[in-house]
Amino acid sequence: MFQTYVSCHLWDLVDEGIDEVLGRLKGEAGADGVSVTVACPRVGLLRPHRGVSPRTFRSEGGLQFQPNKDAYAATRLRPVVAEWLRKTNPLAAVAEGCERLGLSLRGRIVGCHSEALASRHEFVAVKDVFGDLHPAWLCPSNPDVREYLRALVSDLSTLYPFAALEIEAASFPPAGGRNWGRETCADLGPTGEWLLGLCFCESCRQAATGEGIDAAAAARSATVLLERALATGEPVPKSVEALVASDQILGDYTAWGVRQVTGLIELLRGACRCRLVVRRAGDRLTTGSDFAAISAHCDALLTSPPEPADEVEPVVQAAVADAGELGKVEVGVSACAPACPDSTTLVRALSTAARLGVRTAVVENYGLLPTRRLDWIKQAARYAVRESE
Q: Among positive and negative, which fits the CA dihedral 124, 211, 258, 67?
């Protein structure tokens, strides 16, 4: 049977009433379950629902629950609890509410994207070839980051009755965030941006060198290309693919980074006591994510179409190629504008997924949706169930 989850932020559940929102999701949206964010980066959200306060919710991010601090003893990273929680722990009440209503509960972890941790522990941040630290991204090869995320997954899946944990951004930073908020006159081009985004932190250099990779030579190669682009203002001429193919040292270093990301997911799978779902975003070159390899270490890949939201079939086919089977593919669909301008788009998105054989969809995001769109979700879920029968 097709299952529809609606994603939520805990602050929206708390501000509007946990039982009220869960009841609304089950009744008005026809949801089978709820996916709540349990670890996230900095946010600033203008909320459309009347009566919520503050209307614009801002947070520096962090854990959205009270962790068992003893679980993190093996890492130098100390869990940072989101400031809005203070000493409360609404996640426990959400879990109880879901159980009463027969809603399945999932948790969403944004792994390496964390301003809260990067600002407090600079030794675990991604570092570019010039030695500049990323202000918001943790290096997935750093042993302390890996142990922290392993402990986080174990802590959550032990304390709460999650049907699954959704992991995203357990990788190197995506291409879209390569500049890290920096301005430059030079046009580095896509390849220059990619080179600037490679991590050459101490952990990466030491670990790669220990495995026979010439990290120093890779850094020199990247530096020469970037210095030339910065001096001339002209982009690095080759495509990323062509550069990796022609420069064996950079190619080896890139391949090593890909293995680190896959190894991190394997580590998390071993610590997780429920299903582990990995969000399929990025690729081998942009984030170090080889989803064909990663799929061997998770229960499903969660894939999302670009705008518009109903362009589902291409991403499902690509995810099936990675996962090796349709049963390991889930779909995430935004019900927000502009990706989803009308109810027909959402109905078509979920129905297409169901017709293709997908059996789980996550619709985003309750706190940002006008309440009338809950009926859109209910319609879409009904059509998807019919398609799956």
A: negative
pLDDT, tens digit, 9 for 90 and up, residues 88-109:
999 999 999 999 999 999 999 9
Residue 343: φ, ψ to 5°: -65, -30
Question: What's the CA gap between 109 and 2, in Å, rounded?
Answer: 23
**Buried residues in 325-363 as b, exposed as e (16+ CB within 10 A):** eeebbbbbbbbbeebbeebebbbbbbbbbbebebbbbbb
> Helix 373-388 crosses helix 343-356 at what angle (to 10 degrees)?
20
Could you list the beta-strand ranges (E) of the chain: 3-8, 33-40, 43-46, 56-59, 62-63, 104-110, 125-127, 133-138, 164-168, 275-280, 300-303, 329-334, 360-364
| Model pLDDT, residue 183 | 79
CA 211 → CA 57, 208, 255, 258, distances in Å? 45, 5, 12, 14
3-state secondary structure at position 299: coil
- The first and second tokens of residue 88, run together, are 């409360």
The whole-angstrom separation of Cα 264 and Cα 64 is: 22
Residue position matching structure tokens 């522990």? 121
Q: Is the pLDDT of residue 177 over 80?
A: no
Tokens of 352: 């297409």
Alpha-carbon distance of 369 to 375, in angstroms, equals 11
> What is the β-pairing status of strands 56-59 and 164-168?
unpaired
Q: How far apart are CA 197 and CA 286, in angstroms?
A: 9
Under 8 Å between Cβ of 136 and 40: no
Say yes or no to pLDDT of 10 above 90: yes
Residue 72 pLDDT exceeds 60: yes
DSSP state of 174: P
pLDDT in tens, 192-240: 999 999 999 999 999 999 999 999 999 999 999 999 999 999 999 999 9
Task: Give me 89's structure tokens.
Answer: 């722990």
CA 104, 107, 108, 111 dihedral sign is negative
Residue pLDDT, tens place only, 227-242: 999 999 999 999 999 9
- pTM more than 0.90: yes
Nearest to 273 by CA among 147, 138, 160, 149: 160
d(CA 348, CA 336): 15
